[in-house]
Design goal:
Layout lengths: L2 H20 L5 E2 L3 E3 L11 E3 L6 H5 L9 E4 L11 E12 L21 E2 L3 H11 L15 E7 L5 E8 L6 E8 L5 H10 L5 E5 L4 H6 L3 E11 L1
Parallel strand pairs: 3-4, 9-10
Antiparallel strand pairs: 1-2, 2-3, 4-11, 5-10, 5-11, 6-7, 7-8, 8-9
Length: about 230
């Protein structure tokens, strides 16, 4: 089991906790999983497994497991079908080691970020970012006040948000990358800009389908599968 996979799952759980806390919801982290007892915000799980072999029933006892519940199965080894869940999507954990010299990115097209990403620091700018992202009320101003979170935006010449990402630095040795989006064209350059914005730090995250390819082109490597289960 790659250590990067364990680290990525833990970092993602920390990010889920930050998002939930911005909505007034507080979870708990145990050796096997992070969980939140009340329904998490839209697109965010009610639990994230932190190691393989988690007991399904014990995990579901910690959350509101009724309709709408979701679980991030970080090691793709749970079977929640007997409990009324289905697989919503499968994805791949990704990671990129720290750059030995942050200013010297590899000389390939993916590593030329143009234009750079700009930190979002004001609530009105966050609202514009969230509208472009599609997250609407999901991203709340409390995130901007947390020193562990950096919301990044790419702007067109007219000031319109053309893409973005979120960096989160939890208690581990890596920086998490999430919510990467580009409003048009290939996102490879945006992923390269994320690397530059992170200052050469080791990065982890996850992506699925066509969204995975730009990250791989930008120098990330796959670290293992995950699944998200949902109960209709």
């Amino acid at each position: 089991m790659p250590e990067e996979r364990v680290t990525a799952a833990r970092n993602n759980a920390e990010w889920c906790e930050l998002v939930c806390a911005s909505h007034g919801l507080y979870g708990r982290t145990e050796a096997d999983a992070w969980s939140v007892p009340r329904r998490s915000p839209r697109w965010y799980p009610d639990a994230v497994t932190l190691r393989p072999g988690v007991a399904a029933e014990a995990l579901l006892d910690r959350i509101d497991a009724g309709p709408g519940a979701s679980v991030k199965d970080s090691f793709a080894d749970l079977d929640l079908r007997p409990y009324g869940f289905r697989v919503l999507f499968a994805a791949e954990w990704i990671h990129r080691p720290a750059d030995p010299a942050p200013a010297d990115l590899p000389a390939d097209p993916a590593a030329v970020p143009a234009p750079p990403l700009t930190p979002v620091t004001a609530p009105d700018a966050l609202a514009a970012w969230a509208a472009a992202h599609g997250g609407a009320e999901l991203f709340r101003p409390a995130l901007l006040a947390d020193p562990r979170v950096t919301v990044l935006a790419r702007y067109d010449d007219d000031g319109t948000v053309a893409g973005g990402a979120v960096l989160n630095r939890g208690g581990g040795p890596v920086t998490g990358v999430s919510n990467v989006f580009a409003t048009g064209g290939d996102a490879t350059g945006l992923w390269a800009a994320v690397r530059a914005a992170a200052g050469g730090a080791a990065l982890v995250g996850y992506e699925s389908g066509d969204d995975l390819l730009p990250a791989l082109r930008a120098g990330f490597a796959a670290a293992g599968p995950l699944r998200v289960w949902v109960r209709d």
